[in-house]
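Appendix B, record 7
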Amino acid sequence: MARGFARVTLVGNLTRDPELRTTPGGTSVCQFGVAVGRRYKDNSGQWVDKASFFDVVVWGQQGENCAQYLSKGREVAVDGRLDQRSWEAQDGSKRSKVEIIAETVVFLGGQGGETREPAYRGGDQPARGAAPVNDDFRDIDFGGDDIPF
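Structure tokens (predicted):
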């Protein structure tokens, strides 16, 4: 059989709280959904917002961390491989599903789906909700051009 390449990286928001389970062998497995939005212009020039939905599976300690710290709405970056699962439904029909088996999950944004904001948008005014800037080093003379980097 020819060897292929099925890798995916996506950034989006959780569509539901993570579900943590344990296999009979004692391995933790966490499942959650991620929505990824995009915006494009259609043939008539109107902006269209579209979301794509993906199921993510995370194994082991990383899955336990996802279940503990993630919740619906939280922004994440997921890197992993695609895997297709097949089964027979109770009515006898054959079903299949493509999932992302995560190798890396990076927690982005704030708790509870807060979005990221830059600390400053320009000028001297902090962005809404930004922490005050620590100016402790403002008056230090770093010796002009003697900095070696």
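Remarks on this record: The chain is about 5% helix and 45% strand. The two ends are 51 Å apart (CA to CA).
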